[in-house]
Amino acid sequence: MQISLFYLVATLALGLNASAKKTNGTCICSNRALERCLIARSVPFKVRCDSDWEDYSRTHNLRLPVTPAAIVVPDNSRHVSAAVVCAGRSGVKVQAKSGGHSYGSYSSGGIDGQVMIDLRNFNETVLSGNGTNIAIVGGGVRLGPMATAIYEQGNRAISHGICPSVGIGGHSTHGGWGFTSRAWGLTLDHIVAMQVVLANGTVTRASPDVNPDLYWAMRGAADSIGIAISISLKTQAAPQEVLTFIYEFQTILESVPKSVSALMGIQGYMSNSTAVDRRLSLLVQTTVNPDPASGTVSKSLVVAGIFMGSLAEFSSHIEPELLRRVPDAPTARDVQSHNWIDSLARQSPDGTLDGAPESLDFFGNSATIDSPGLTEAAATSYFSYMLDGPAPPVGFESSMELWGGADGQIGLAAKNASFAAFPHRDVFWTAHNRAQAAPDVPFPDEGVAFLNGLRDAIVETLDVPTGAYPNLLDTSLTREEAHALYYGDEVLERLRRVKAVYDPRNIFWNPQSI
Known about the structure:
Keywords: FAD, Flavoprotein, Oxidoreductase, Signal. Residues 64-238 form the FAD-binding PCMH-type domain. InterPro entries: BBE, FAD-bd_PCMH, FAD-bd_PCMH-like_sf, FAD-bd_PCMH_sub2, FAD-linked_Oxidoreductase, Oxid_FAD_bind_N. One of its GO terms (molecular function) is oxidoreductase activity. The chain starts with a helix and ends in a 12-residue tail after the last helix. 33% of the residues lie in helices and 22% in strands. Helix 2 runs antiparallel to helix 4, helix 5 runs antiparallel to helix 11 and helix 12 packs antiparallel against helix 13. The protein folds into 3 domains: 5-118, 2-Layer Sandwich (Uridine Diphospho-n-acetylenolpyruvylglucosamine Reductase, domain 2); 125-238 and 491-502, Uridine Diphospho-n-acetylenolpyruvylglucosamine Reductase, domain 3 (2-Layer Sandwich), CATH 3.30.465.10; 242-482, Vanillyl-alcohol Oxidase, Chain A, domain 3 (3-Layer(aba) Sandwich), CATH 3.40.462. It is α+β, with helices and mostly antiparallel strands and 514 residues long. The chain has 15 helices and 19 strands. It has helices spanning 5-22, 32-40, 53-57, 77-90, 143-154, 168-173, 181-184, 212-225, 256-270, 311-324, 340-347, 376-388, 445-459, 479-486, 488-502; strands at 45-46, 70-72, 94-97, 115-118, 125-127, 134-138, 156-157, 191-197, 203-206, 227-234, 236-237, 242-249, 280-291, 296-307, 332-338, 362-370, 396-402, 427-436, 466-467.
């Protein structure tokens, strides 16, 4: 990248102004060695006395605010490299922020006093024009703008999650599930190469042919290994028609047996290879909201998903069989046909693909449930806890997100522990539990214990392996517990060996890192 004279003058001026601002007695960087190093190398950064500090330091999870020693805002790989070197020389750890959606605020360092490298200026998405249909995506690009760019540039698509403000960096390097994952695999499976900044400041390539160990480790544990400033992703031809469907059931949750019957019926249907293929995907979400004023609790169950096919096929074959296995008729039905990009907007929480960041006060956890899925006993334990168990101290939602089932492409045999540092392949469901405080009400400590009880209710009666999904990280886990659930012994051992080669001083650190 060429750097203009104007840019050099502007950065030097920023460094000089920052120096004066940070030494005026009212606001200084908490690590003076770090500050001097960044200024000497003309690296743009923010500290607490900057007027826009709040915009840069605000975490996605308001329950877990973090105050970095400095927030580096690089414009190029040289800035990222210099910032990593400065942090290492100053005795502080580093984490990169792509979209900043870490459930534990780990992209801000996870604890106070670390260096956050904000990749917001690495925001370009370019679809190759050489016939390969590879999308080269900056490490700070958010999913919504990325999807829009590759669709507009070539009518292409990538498998990814439904929240447009999530950053591609963390999402793709720690899994990346979405409704199209059953058809195309995880976002991680689309990565063909990365440009990575290492702990010693080196900028290098990681691909199957160049630094293959680094390539393997970055696809599963990038937060512990390096900073992906550019990610090259294979793309798919965008489907011409995509059906989105949402069914709401108000009466099913009146009893545990009916709830169990609905979930097990859907699981059986999605396992039937004579009726289902990879084009269909869904989740089953239970929402529970207590009303402290009245003492009542509202509950609803939603089945939502997509079908990459025609409305005629869905209406005649898919919908009747899917609903036939649910004991009650839906109280609300919304089935719509879209082109690809409009289907993504429909799935988005705000109906757009703008990718504007958001902040919430919440706690979340997860459990991966291997094939063949839930037993009736596990489903009964799950719904008994939600419907007849302890009173919820806060509103929550619990989603059974479909990873497996007939013809699913996440768990192909070739995608084993040698393929990438992401072991969750033979997964049927991932349970995603999240509780959120009401606006201006602090999240109660009891909410964490309640959601952990819900997770335990799912896994304690299962007879298949379980783990946890690192993109839905659980801050209540110890480092050892997180490693066991996110990686397992085989992947963890190899990750430790790769970490020793590429980051022997443990520069890239967070409370659950390798």
